[in-house]
Amino acid sequence: MPAAILGVMGGSGVYDLPGMEDVREERIASPWGEPSDALRIGRIGPTTVAFMPRHGRGHRVSPSDINYRANIDVMKRAGVTDLVSLSACGSFKEECPPGTFVLVDQFVDRTHRRESSFFGRGCVAHVSMAHPIGPRLQERLAQAAAAEGIAVSRGGTYVCMEGPQFSSLAESLTYKGLGYTVIGMTNMPEAKLAREAEITYATVAMVTDFDCWHPDHEAVEVADVIKVVRANADKAARLVSRLARDFPAEHEPCPAKSDRALDTAIMTPPEFRDLELVQKLDAVAGRVLGR
Ligand SMILES: CSC[C@H]1O[C@H](OP(=O)(O)O)[C@H](O)[C@@H]1O
Ligand SMILES: Nc1ncnc2[nH]cnc12
User: Fold this and answer.
1) What global pTM score does this model have?
2) Confidence at 2, pLDDT banded by 50, 70, 90
3) Which of 32, 65, 77, 159 is deepest in the core (most CB within 10 A)?
4) Where does this protein hold substrate (predicted)?
């Protein structure tokens, strides 16, 4: 198994990761274009950690415009094996009020104007997204939370909308009625691309609001989100720090096979592959395509 390197994708209000030592900033070039920002690579305890703010420092990139492929590609190039997504979310559950950390285990993708695959014409692949979250990584997050005395709610479905506008009341009530737990604008296609890149993925959904369905709460506004994220910044940093300090030296095989997702995924035989695309896949799929 390769050395475990922990990636952290910071969401709204999370543009830095306190507690990293020996930090260097790396602008890794990607054939998929410009990532949101440089990677900050450092150490927390014995673990190498690579941090990227997915909206860029200064929150310059909107959810629809994030180059998710480049972000995941540079994480892969940096050797990231396990990726934790820190994400601000609206909640559809009374029992998950603002301030709650939810370790979701499912996603529903309602985005419609994003590049959502590394593969395509000249190299077709279909990975499984049945279990998008790495159960062991999630368990480690739960253990880190317990060790730090941070309450988490385990399990739930994150619906990813296109945005950038928040939902209408009808949409919010529909998602609530469908039993979804939280809503955000970024974890799809991020989780799909992480799977294609064989990076184990887990999300900490940090509830910031009740979207607009709750009769006793005003419809969400950006100021509410930022206020709650700021209030929870220390908790999020402690959670990641503990996770990193207790992380194994070697990547643990993922029960959801996220780290071997390409074993059975590629449809196009070598003689039919587009060489240009194969070259771009050097980091993401080098393990199976040959570097
Ligand atoms: C600032 S509110 C909407 C914004 O916040 C969430 O971002 P992230 O998932 O990166 O924490 C949500 O997905 C929207 O992008
Ligand atoms: N209610 C909401 N809808 C979509 N994205 C969000 N991010 C934080 N709160 C959100």
Assistant:
1) 0.98
2) confident
3) 159
4) 185, 209-211
